[in-house]
Amino acid sequence: MKHIIIITGAGKGIGKAIALDFAKASKTYHDFEPVLILVSRTLSDLETVAVQCRDFGAAVDIIQADIADMAQIDQLVNVTLERYGAIDCLVNNAGVGRFKPFTELTVEDYEYTMATNLKGTFFLTQKVFPVMEKNKSGHIFFITSIAAETAFKSSSLYSMSKFGQKGFLEAIRLYAKSCNVRITNVMPGAVYTPMWGEVPEEMKGVMMMPEDISAPLVNAYLLPQRTSVEELVIRPVGGDINE
Ligand SMILES: NC(=O)c1ccc[n+]([C@@H]2O[C@H](COP(=O)([O-])OP(=O)(O)OC[C@H]3O[C@@H](n4cnc5c(N)ncnc54)[C@H](OP(=O)(O)O)[C@@H]3O)[C@@H](O)[C@H]2O)c1
Question: For residue 97, which atom of ligand 1 is closest to its CA?
């Protein structure tokens, strides 16, 4: 059976691992035929991930889009529906972070963070949800963070946006339950991805890897429709590594 799956931020890090794990699952489960719609702002990243996913036999489409831009959200959803006629899964993974003491954060840092993490995530979900509501089926993942409920000193803006995502997803779960749509909040601790930039070796050694997040996410999707994994909290075994 075909599953139309949109993954935002699929070019790098956790989103790339999610795309690859959905693609790999198509080899294990013969009735699972994912059509992966890979989304980010950087076309070359998406092309690289697409080749790797196709190697596992998955169907892949690429849509270069900035989810902070309302017109590009509309185009992303409209093009997906024109090409495939359905959306079975949305992975709200695209996210950005500016990590500094809160006294040093600028208006530009604020607007950049909120435009993707809050505005983009909100309006993309708002555009996709009615499609799932009509089908009485669907699954929306939000890759929030442990920073959606735990404060860290350098994460004031990031945490604001992630607490906001958590509030939003909990509100839409109230709509989703009545139309058989599953909402999963994925809350990872520190994962070694390009988001962190340069990381000292000793810190890298205690961080999680993107596949540590993507594997449980794909398993949650593949559970029977009657079951909804509402939260996945995934931390490095030694606990949180930043303050
Ligand atoms: N890494 C961690 O420790 C960690 C922990 C908890 C939660 N998270 C969350 O997990 C998600 C993925 O993080 P990551 O660490 O994998 O980050 P990453 O390595 O920086 O990758 C982020 C991806 O999102 C895309 N993206 C960012 N803004 C976008 C926008 N406006 N429109 C479309 N695509 C956009 C980026 O591509 P382009 O720049 O090319 O658009 C990239 O492909 C984020 O929401 C993050 O907050 C990460």
Answer: 47
